[in-house]
Amino acid sequence: MKVTLLGSTGLVGKNVVQLLAQLDEAESVYCPVRAVPDIAAMGVLQGASKFVFDPVDFDALLNSRPEEQQQSSVCSNFVGCDAVICCLGTTLKQAGSKANQEKIDLRLPLTLAALAKRQGVKHFICISAMGANSHSPFFYNRLKGQLEEGLTMIGFESLTLVRPSLLLGKHKDKRFGEELMQKFFGLHPEWIPAHFRPVRAETVAAHLVANLLKPPVDHVCATDGVKGKRIVYNRQLREF
Fold first, then answer.
1. What spatial distance separates the first Cα and last Cα of the chain, rounded to whole Å?
2. Pairing state of beta strands 83-86 and 2-6?
């Protein structure tokens, strides 16, 4: 199986890298990145040879004409790919503006997804967010809702959308509010209703890889009746 991993250097993406390194079914993993990471520093010792990290100028890709995007290294590496796992995402603080966050959380994954679909990729697996709704009054939830709708419209044979709550784990950047919530709720998770409880990044990663092996080809989504679409809710992540 050939897999493409988007967002491989992020909190969840790093955990996915570690799992794919151990997964026999994943024979090769293509990772387009802004900067090539040290894979050993990501905790991968065995299985590192199956990863191909490709430095890509994503801003240039987004601003390119369709015919130029078709000639990009990303597009050519989608050829023969069985599935894409998308862990792209950022915070408003990290992005610096709503426009930049929209670019990273919405425009980039939809652009890459469309290129993947044109090259014959059948299964797209993507991290969304609990509360994703294109009509939400909250900017972040609205972005994720628009992302889900866009991915549905692209028409993959199989589409898996994972909606976690607050992610527990060590972020690259300092997030005081999240760190405080992690410390507080990590001690008393029983105080939060099950479907709202924070979930560990490695748990989300494990669910992404599990869904990689079981595409929802014949599943019918209960919310919109789309065949081949599965939404994984936070409660399911907790139970998993």
1. 24
2. parallel
Chain segment 217-239, per-residue pLDDT in tens: 999 999 999 999 999 999 888 77
**pLDDT bucket at 185, cuts 50 / 70 / 90:** low
Which two tokens mark 221?
Answer: 């989504």
Q: Are 203 and 169 in contact (CB under 8 A)?
A: no
Instruction: Identify which of 61, 50, 164 has the alpha carbon closest to the alpha carbon of residue 113.
Output: 61
CA–CA separation, 128 vs 86, rounded Å? 9
Cα-based distances in Å from 189 to 175, 183, 197, 207, 239: 20, 10, 7, 20, 14
DSSP β-bridge partners for residue 30:
4, 52
- Please, are residues 129 and 141 in contact by the beta-carbon 8 Å criterion? yes
For 188, counting Cβ atoms within 10 Å of its Cβ (0-12 exposed, 13-18 middle, 19+ buried), the class is exposed
Count CB atoms within 10 A of the CB of residue 134: 14
Contact (Cβ atoms closer than 8 angstroms) between residue 53 and residue 30: no
Tell me the per-residue pLDDT of 114-132, one tens digit each, with 9 for 90 and over.
999 999 999 999 999 999 9
Closest CA to 12 of 239, 204, 235: 204
- Predicted confidence at residue 43, as pLDDT, reads 87
pTM: 0.91
Tokens 């862990």 belong to which residue?
A: 87
- Asked whether the beta carbons of 219 and 227 are under 8 A apart, the reply is yes
Q: What is the mean pLDDT of residues 195-206?
A: 88
Q: Which residue has the tokens 């998993």?
A: 240
Angle at 210 between CA 206 and CA 212, to 5 degrees: 115
